[in-house]
Design a protein that fits this description.
Helices cover about 50% and strands about 15% of the residues. It is an alpha+beta fold.
Length: about 325
């Protein structure tokens, strides 16, 4: 039994795509049909690897003088000889493989997962999202209630969530072999719920307590939330290279925030300060007290005085310029 050698061809995610069993002290791996394991990879030599067992039953993998060589994992160092322990991922050309003996000790079996409870969570998030949107529409409504006023907004949210989750499920199916649509939909609904909640805060804060920061930096929060959601989706597709994925998502978010900030800066420069209150709300929501009439006219008088001083300074400067030209 100890003479049995197992060769596993792996996918890019190191899942087993094919497994071959051989009984004997030595086998050959390559692209040619004379090998024990034939690898259909144009970057693999006709005779690429020799696997043999030593007197002490250790498995040795040797490169048979090939052009592209033999590597372990993603390392660039070329190796001529490897003593395998069953865990190394050996790379030849663009093919990953693993070699194990019959005595390789496997980890203990995993416990069966409990029945998925993700559907009730998805339904709960969907109901909360629709309730928040319905409440927002009701507070902004100025005319008589009409079904046509509510339906577009309420139907658009689940359509966006399903479309977004479907796109990520397709990518997940392509790169990991499983669509995991329920997980993708959960991520999409969670992100959409957080975004909707922040939008409600940014609409209420200026009107209720005259706090304009949430509205002013709403685009920052939107891009940050979008980046978190995308990273969450990428993690669901595959947990490998999370630092690289996080760096790419963070870089794109920073680029989007910077571009948006520049556009808004130019808009304010050309058209002045934009209104932070986009929708009227019932007066009962106003918590900050209004200024009284006397305070309002005091501010007007101060403004008039400031304008008179500015006119005098401008007139003095114009007069000085005119005298200089006459001389």
């Amino acid at each position: 039994m100890d003479e049995v050698i197992w060769v596993e061809i792996l996918t890019r995610h190191h899942d087993v795509a094919a497994r071959y069993r051989f009984a004997g002290p030595e086998i050959h791996i390559g692209r040619g049909y004379t090998n024990d394991v034939v690898v259909d990879d144009p970057y693999v030599a006709v005779e690429h690897l020799r696997v043999r067992r030593t007197d002490d039953h250790a498995l040795i993998v040797e490169d048979i003088g090939t052009l592209n060589g033999m590597h372990v994992g993603r390392e660039r160092e070329r190796l001529e000889r490897i003593v395998v322990d069953g865990d190394q991922v050996i790379r030849i050309g663009r093919t990953d493989l693993r070699i194990r003996g019959a005595g390789y000790v496997l980890p203990r079996e995993l416990a069966l997962a409990r029945p998925s409870r993700i559907i009730p969570v998805i339904v709960t998030l969907g109901v909360l999202l629709l309730a928040m949107e319905a409440l927002s529409l009701w507070l902004r409504q100025l005319a008589e209630p009409q079904l046509s006023y509510y339906l577009p907004g309420l139907l658009a949210l689940p359509a966006y969530a399903v479309s977004w989750a479907g796109a990520w499920a397709i990518l997940c199916r392509i790169f990991s072999g499983q669509a995991r649509f329920e997980r993708q939909l959960l991520i999409a609904l969670s992100g959409l719920l957080m975004l909707t909640l922040y939008q409600q805060i940014s609409e209420f804060a200026p009107f209720v307590i005259s706090w304009y920061a949430p509205t002013k930096y709403a685009f920052v929060a939107s891009y940050v939330l979008l980046g978190v959601v995308c990273f969450w989706h990428l993690h669901e597709i595959g947990p490998s290279r999370l630092r690289v994925k996080g760096g790419i998502v963070a870089g794109l978010a920073i680029l989007a925030i910077t571009t948006h900030w520049l556009i808004e800066s130019e808009t304010r420069f050309n058209y002045g300060q934009q209104s932070a209150i986009r929708h009227l709300l019932p007066t009962a929501f106003r918590l900050k007290p209004l200024s009284n009439e006397a305070a309002f006219f005091d501010d007007v008088e101060k403004l008039k005085g400031q304008l008179d001083q500015d006119r005098k300074k401008q007139a003095a400067a114009s007069g000085t310029t005119t005298e200089a030209e006459d001389d």
